[in-house]
Amino acid sequence: MEAEQAASPHKRIRIDFAQRRRLLAVLGGNHVNYCYQCGACVGDCPTTRFFPSFNPREIMLTALLGDLGTLLAPGSVIWKCSNCYNCYERCPQDVRPVEVIIALKNLAREEGTHPEEAQTIYETILKTGRSAPVIASLKRKRESMGLPPLPAIDMGELRAVLAPEDPPPGDSPPSSTAESES
Amino acid sequence: MKPIKAIFFPGCLIPIKYPQMEVAIRRTLPNLGVEIIDLEGFSCCPDPIYFQAADKIAWLTLAARNLALAEEAGHDIFTVCSGCTGTLSEANHLLRNDEQLRERVNRRLARVGRKYQGSIAVRHIVVLLREKVGIDRVRESVTRPLTGVRVALHYGCHLLKPSSIMQVDDPDDPQILHQLIEAIGAEPVTHDERFLCCGKACIDPDLPLDMTASVLRSVRKSGADCMGMICPTCFSSFDTGQLLLNRKTKEHFEVPPVYFFQLLGLAQGFSADEVGLTRHRIKPTAVLEKIKA
Ligand code: SF4
Ligand code: SF4
Fold first, then answer.
1. CB A65 within 8 A of CB A103
2. CB-based contact (8 Å) between B174 and chain A?
3. Which of A107, A122, A165 to mutate to test the interface with B (most CBs of B within 10 A)?
4. Does the beta-carbon distance from A145 to B20 stay under 8 Å?
5. Would you call A151 and B41 a contact, using CB atoms and an 8 Å cutoff?
6. Is CATH 3.10.50.40 what the domain over A9-114 is classified as, yes or no?
7. Disulfide engineering: B183 pairs with which of A128, B38, B138, B245, CB 3.0-4.6 Å?
């Protein structure tokens, strides 16, 4: 067995399953396992067309290998995705590569490695409920155009629903007896 | 005829950055028998790019809250931005089909006494026209057909894809804009890059402008009088983005992007000012000359 391996011209591939499980646990990340590396997602990817070192098949491979270090590093290529959903449309395996990329972005935010540009709109929404800042002159502008005022948003309500999730009911940590039984 | 009642989901970009599009929507829909219901309390859809990239579960939760508000009011939603359409449609799809996810989101909504049920439909305004109003009725509302006006199609991404969720049209051969542009007497112009993404969401110094420029070159080559838009995000790429390109390159583009409902307004007899076209930085002069408006 060992001799066979030594004779093999191929580099031994290691998969970091623990890291891969991290991705699988994020909503939208779990379909990466269906990827069989056919490349159908690449041909219609506009980002690949204009920036060939971005390649959704390679991103899926890197994720399958569990190399999240590369994908979540500051300046990672994942942020160049245009969110066009062509790959979602083309993939014969229902991998939904764009969803895997979004799941990776969620992890990057947890690690704080997301780019500055991804932050502004997110924060504006958390602060005001809207993605574009409302400037003082807008009220007059809308009035002069015969439009009704912008409806109010209950920010207290938004903050309440956005507060961290509660554990699901009945989800208490397992007791020591339960542990010893399993 | 009984009015078609639908809740207006304005989103952020149109009411804040492009209110002229809202003016066109509010002027043209009553002529199609649509009664617009304005609702208090909607937040951002929220934004399908950055908010979703930050925290997908929080993204679904805010979307579910918006849907729950409409459910309480008891009518379907119509959206006027492809981004809002994508967010609310995907949330509706995921939460209807995944009970665990729905419960997870509803636990957070319960804090403010709300509940997502999955009881209403979300339609982009062009889908509302096709499905509830009917293309014929759009055609009948026209008093000044845009004869000879050539409108370059730009579908954008999120109205059509992912098609399994959106279920609007064949993403490789969509017909809906084609039909609507014909209904107002104009000529839909297909061009090489009609399906290319506007590039807005790429975080990169060059990619957004590269994609925008490719579409603009393709439209220019087609000889169209304007672009027909249905999404304010795409619009900003071809408006602000085009001006930026003209400053940075020697292209000298002069391709006016126009929101479809402004064109519909012209066809219904409104003046360029009444549908907000006089506020545009790249004015659709050729369109207005052809119809002598
Ligand atoms: S993601 Fe889908 S289309 Fe892309 S390489 Fe994998 S299986 Fe093929
Ligand atoms: S969504 Fe991203 S990865 Fe997928 S085809 Fe579009 S740009 Fe490429």
1. no
2. no
3. A122
4. yes
5. yes
6. no
7. B138
> Does the predicted interface ipTM exceed a cut of 0.90?
yes
Report residue A3: phi and psi, to 5°.
-60, -40
Ligand index nearest the alpha carbon of residue A99: 2
Residue of B120, B131, B32 whose CA lies nearest to B70:
B120
Tokens standing for B157?
């991404």
Q: Find out whether A130 and A153 touch, Cβ atoms under 8 Å.
A: yes
* pLDDT tens-digit series, residues B81-133: 999 999 999 999 999 999 999 999 999 999 999 999 999 999 999 999 999 99
What are chain B's domains? 4-125 (1.20.1050.140), 144-292 (3.40.50.11810)
Ligand nearest to the CA of A91: 1
Q: From B34, B50, B42, select the one nearest B11 (Cα to Cα).
A: B42
Q: Give me the tens of pLDDT residue by residue for chain A, a chain 182 residues long.
A: 444 455 566 778 899 999 999 999 999 999 999 999 999 999 999 999 999 999 999 999 999 999 999 999 999 999 999 999 999 999 999 999 999 999 999 999 999 999 999 999 999 999 999 999 999 899 999 999 999 999 999 999 999 999 999 887 765 554 444 433 33
Nearest-atom number in ligand 2 for the CA of A59 is 3
With CB atoms and an 8 Å threshold, state whether A89 touches B112: no
Contact at 8 Å (CB) between B171 and B161?
yes
